[in-house]
Amino acid sequence: MAAYCQVTETKPQFGHNVSHAQNKTKRRFNPNIQKKTYFVPSLKRNVTLQLSARGIKVIDARGIEAVVAAILARGEKI
Hints:
Blueprint: E1 13-18, E2 24-29, E3 33-40, E4 45-52, H1 53-62, H2 64-73
Helix pairs in contact: 1-2
């Protein structure tokens, strides 16, 4: 499963681990991805989304209908 949120479009970021001696090694910051299933009344079916923790909060605030409409509007397959 790729570390990508379908709602917030968050993907991995890159940076460095920095030791006490200031040695820098590459590292990757992954978003907190969860697989969640929601029932969407307009589609009359369940939809499984890969969401970050922030994406779950966005759905709680805006509602699943508005979020699914935005995902479909940008051409992403659900």
